[in-house]
Amino acid sequence: MKELQSRYPVSEKAKAHTHIDAATYDAMYKQSIEQPDVFWGEQAKEFIDWYQPWDSVSKVDLKNSEINWFSGAKLNVSYNCIDRHLATKANDTAIIFEGDDPTEDLKVTYQELHDHVCRFANLLKERGVKKGDRVCIYMPMIPEVGYAMLACARIGAIHSVVFGGFSTESIKARVLDADCKVVITADESLRGGKRIPLKANVDAAVADCPNVHSVIVVARTGGDVAWNEKTDINYEEAVAKQSAICEPEVMDAEDPLFILYTSGSTGTPKGVVHTCGGYILYAAMTHKYVFDYKPGEIYWCTADAGWITGHSYIFYGPLANGATTLVFEGVPTYPDAGRFWQVCEKHKVNVFYTAPTAIRALMSVGDELVNQSDLSSLRLLGSVGEPINPEAWNWYYEVVGKRNCPIVDTWWQTETGGILITSLPGAVDMKPGCAGKPFFGVQPALFDKDGNTLEGENQGLLVMTASWPGQLRTVYGDHNRFYQTYLGQYPGNYFTGDGAKRDEDGFYWITGRVDDVLNVSGHRLGTAEIESALVLHPAVAEAAVVGYPHEIKGQGVYCYVTLMGNAIESDELNTELKEFVAKELGRFAKPDYIQWAPGLPKTRSGKIMRRILRKIAENDVDTLGDTSTLADPSVVENLIDQRIIHG
Ligand code: WTA
């Protein structure tokens, strides 16, 4: 492997392909900041079909948490993702489905997508779903998850997709919070040859959700499921009876499109709300420019539809652009760890977008499996979800991309709707480990914790000083929480929860979360959620959870648990507690380590000092810093003695 360079200039090949060269980026960025309404008005006309234009492009007052883009304009997102392409692309492939089983695949044309979505939309209508109603989607990664989302968008229902790895408790909490009356699921999902009982999880969840009147069940595996005649609907039978024509509902630009729950530093997950107009414009535009997408290319984002990356960059952005998007049901390591590369070869993938955790895992099994596949179709590679360490970047660049594909490291969040910081492939040089420069209209700044702006080359808290169309509009059912979490800390600015460095060239390097949010294998988790799950166990009196650097997962989960007086520390209980969390939240949240903690380091006012716990979990115990403010400094000695040393 060649030595790692710190900077890679834009290649001639990328320049020849790009929509946006360096001069265009500079000019467009300048206009987007100096005349945002002119800029976004033009983009909105270019990217989106509107039934009726807007009264004003932006009406934003971040201090008062009011964010409006394209007020008064009318559109339908499903129309923009499907119908408007039919005149020229009816027989082009919209979705390539690649099953968990490598012998199973399927192509769905835009015309077929239209028909599936319309039938599904008509079925929802028949079940009484109307504009503004919430629908929960808990599905495998099969085309039907996209049909379900677009069917909701078509009739103006608000979808809330719940990741298929979440447990019963997590589904229940989300269904209740949004008061969903319909749940869309499948009998089972297939992952790495294993069956996961989605319907059974939904059954257990909706047993406590009295307002759910319909559960629509797609037959994925044909596995046995319990059937409730009152609520359950067989999807295949029901849609066969529906018409393949369904007029799109005319939606206001600021009507909600979806809710997506995400973890914060405190409390239960928040229902992030995105609205129709701004979101679809931002998803479409970033998809085209960040991936330099050209018609006819095969585009593959490996995320799950249950996360924002799946929303914006498997379905909404690519379909709005009339792209061919690949939907992959399986896992990177089944049947073997060469699967991603086999799929790239099989479907001649041009653009491949994945997460650093997957790259690191595949890097660890060696180059041979990559080299067994013909990857000559690849033009561009993307990374998302966490900072990519330079070693993984280098492997991705050299071994996967053969030094022939730019890498776009894309920084963004559930709340931002789309990519905010990246190196546009034809315009901005790449620096391994660095997210790059702001997208159009995005105005990042670095603050110290008192809200003072840090100029030039510096490091601080990453904020956005202005709105962009893809910004979240509220937290579902709790506008005050929206303000407190994102806008109230530094009034007039959006606080990201991330720290960042800006270098001498004005490039941004994301340093990671500055709050108690973990990023485990690209899955976002609040330490508070894991703590709440642990204390539900009868043996647990108190728990404190921190992250530690993990070679593959990015971060691992390290828990300190104080037991009830009558409970006894044992290896069995340790294992039981890990499984308990996996059951409460989902397997991806299973703790890596649980350390028994007879006491936790607390200030005299009772606040747990996580800084100290983090250092102990990282095995960095020589620089614990000031412990004099602790109520009982001796608990720290015990925790250090008993710490779990991991490799
Ligand atoms: C982290 C995922 C560094 C960051 C799209 C952010 C990243 C959180 C990157 C959001 C990146 C995402 N470099 N860190 N390229 N992309 N993050 O809401 O900490 O699941 O705040 O959205 O992931 O995670 P979320």
TrEMBL record:
Mg(2+) binds at V535, H537, V540. GO terms for molecular function: ligase activity. It catalyses: acetate + ATP + CoA = acetyl-CoA + AMP + diphosphate. Residues 529-607 form the AMP-binding enzyme C-terminal domain. InterPro entries: Ac_CoA_lig (IPR011904), ACAS_N (IPR032387), AMP-bd_C (IPR025110), AMP-bd_C_sf (IPR045851), AMP-binding_CS (IPR020845), AMP-dep_synth/lig_dom (IPR000873), ANL_N_sf (IPR042099). Acetylated. Deacetylation by the SIR2-homolog deacetylase activates the enzyme. Keywords: Acetylation, ATP-binding, Ligase, Magnesium, Metal-binding, Nucleotide-binding. SUPFAM superfamilies: Acetyl-CoA synthetase-like (SSF56801). Catalyzes the conversion of acetate into acetyl-CoA (AcCoA), an essential intermediate at the junction of anabolic and catabolic pathways. AcsA undergoes a two-step reaction. In the first half reaction, AcsA combines acetate with ATP to form acetyl-adenylate (AcAMP) intermediate. In the second half reaction, it can then transfer the acetyl group from AcAMP to the sulfhydryl group of CoA, forming the product AcCoA. The modification N6-acetyllysine is found at K607. Residues 25-81 form the Acetyl-coenzyme A synthetase N-terminal domain. It is an enzyme of class 6 (ligase). ATP binds at G385, E386, P387, D409, T410, W411, W412, Q413, T414, D498, R513, R524. This is Acetyl-coenzyme A synthetase. NCBIfam families: Ac_CoA_lig_AcsA (TIGR02188), PRK00174.1 (NF001208). CoA binds at R191, G192, G193, K194, T309, S521. Its EC number is 6.2.1.1.
